[in-house]
Amino acid sequence: MAHVTVRVPAVLAAGLGGRREVEVPYDADAGPPTVRRLLDVLAEQHPRFGRRVRDERGEVRRYVNVFVGPDNIRDLAGQDTAVPAGADLLVVQSVAGG
Questions:
Q1: Which terminus has fewer CB within 10 Å in the chain: N or C?
Q2: Which SUPFAM superfamilies does the UniProt record give (predicted)?
């Protein structure tokens, strides 16, 4: 069983039980997982995190950015972006203030 490391900033860590990094397992024989599948697994295990990252339609919220390695999924195939072996998934929530 392979895994993808998902990293989040402190503002999202509460939704993952206080962890800023989690490993999400996947079946390597089935090929690389998509961002959607990884977020589905996390939302199932951590519903609070799932609600903070995606809206009621399952779309990534506009103030949340998801990166596969250095690339924003909005510039790739969105949630259908494959996460290759060895790549990290970074989920970042925009923070406003002044």
A1: C
A2: MoaD/ThiS
